[in-house]
Here is the input.
Amino acid sequence: MNSASDSLIETILERMRAEGGRITQKRIRIIQALAEFDHPASADKIRQSAGLAETDLVTVYRNLEALHGIGAVQRIPLENGTQLFELTVPGEHYHHLICRECHQAERLDLCVGKEVLGRAKAHGYSQITHVMEVYGVCKDCDDHS
Ligand SMILES: [Zn+2]
Ligand SMILES: [Zn+2]
Here is the structure.
């Protein structure tokens, strides 16, 4: 594991403590597993790579929710209603390009935030957030068909 993800893990653990969240061994392993992925992953994949095969998937979801609650995990909705999860620097968010066939997701280096914020403020809204994910068929899947 590189030092960038080490310091991100430290930041997340500090935030978790500050918010009164529990730091369990399982939680640490889930954070470490998330840090190893270079793309968003399903709860089941995260469970496997955290070495928690014996752990109930509900427990994994509960941990991911707790991390989402402190801004350390972003949920990426798929078109089929399931979700992928990605470790997030608290306070940041990302947009993704997601293949509807193989469910690979990659970050899109783009944010529509400013424009959205301006419009939403013009409607009198405050505490504005936004979600934007882009779906399509990736090059690999397109080649196979
Ligand atoms: Zn694909
Ligand atoms: Zn954005």
Q: What stands out?
A: The helical segments are 3-18, 25-36, 43-49, 57-69, 113-122, 139-144. The chain has a mean pLDDT of 93.
